[in-house]
Design brief:
By secondary structure, the chain is α/β, with parallel strands linked by helices. The protein has twelve helices and eight strands. β7, α6 and β8 form a beta-alpha-beta unit. It has two domains: about 160 residues, NAD(P)-binding Rossmann-like Domain (Rossmann fold, 3-Layer(aba) Sandwich); about 90 residues, ProC C-terminal domain-like (ProC C-terminal domain-like fold), CATH 1.10.3730. The two termini are about 35 Å apart.
Length: about 280
């Protein structure tokens, strides 16, 4: 990674994770700055990482080559319009990690066609096991794409999406997805306790089984369907459980759930795009 300066607007959990990942990856802390209104968060960031912090967004935005917008979607318009006068040529690459805020909306609020990348990370980024989809506006150069990808790789895997419209599907799958797995693990743990396992054993076996299955899938060239078949013996216990899932309409329910999340993501994007905020 070359020696460009990186600024963050917002010092919440995702920003802290990115800052920690970047520094762990070898980025000099003196190249990172964060604008955060909460004094206690600023103190924590500067003490923990040795980075520069400020309560003023413009101070950070005016002195970086990459600016990560790490604020809640509901305040993005206010933040972006407040930065518009500061982001003059040469303007930094903007990376937004706010879910549901369209690139066209942000560029309209800015009043100029700047280089903008939308990133959709998920919460496992907090433990550097995230999955982030990236979309670049036409103004983004190849060098800027590389920079954006390098920054988001500090907290996990990345991939590029050419059609911004697919970001709603990304949000429904990987953005909301950790909650689906948490729900399934919660249900497995509860079922195990009802079968008589002590709570500690039910929890440990649930979590280790989930982790082991994910690692097997990641390390295999075979898809989940084939892996499932390989561990399903005819007439065995796994087949009995999978039969019960099928009778309950498990696959149909999953499809409905992910579609509902996708539709809600699109609805929220429209709401955030309204001129009245």
């Amino acid at each position: 990674m070359d020696s460009y300066r990186i600024g963050f607007i917002g010092g919440g959990n995702m920003a802290r994770s990115l800052v920690g990942g970047l520094i762990a990856g070898g980025i000099d802390a003196t190249r990172i700055s964060v604008a955060e209104p909460d004094a206690s968060k600023r103190d924590e960031l500067s003490t923990r990482f040795g980075i520069t912090t400020s309560q003023d967004n413009g101070t950070v935005a005016s002195d970086v080559e990459v600016l990560v917008l790490a604020v809640k979607p509901q305040v993005m318009r206010q933040v972006v319009t407040g930065l518009a006068a500061t982001l003059h040529e040469p303007a930094p690459l903007l990376i937004s990690i706010a879910a549901g805020v369209r690139a066209a909306s942000m560029l309209r609020w800015l009043g100029q066609p700047l280089a903008l990348v939308r990133a959709m990370p998920n919460t496992p980024a907090l433990v550097r096991s995230g999955a982030t989809a990236l979309y670049a506006s036409p103004e983004v150069s190849e060098e800027q794409r590389s920079r954006a990808e390098s920054i988001m790789r500090a907290v996990g895997q990345t991939l590029w999406i050419d059609d911004e419209g697919l970001m709603d599907a990304v949000t429904a799958l990987s953005g909301s997805g950790p909650a689906y797995f948490f729900l399934f693990m919660e249900a497995l743990e509860q079922a195990a306790k009802e079968l008589g396992l002590p709570p500690e054993a039910a929890r440990l076996l649930t979590l280790e089984t989930a982790q082991g299955a994910a690692r097997m899938a990641l390390s295999s060239d075979e898809g989940p369907a084939l892996l499932r078949k390989r561990v399903t013996s005819p007439g065995g216990t796994t087949e009995a459980a999978l039969g019960a899932f099928a009778e309950g309409g498990f696959e149909t329910l999953v499809t409905r759930a992910v579609r509902a999340a996708c539709e809600r993501s699109a609805e929220l994007a429209v709401r955030l795009d309204r001129d009245d905020g």
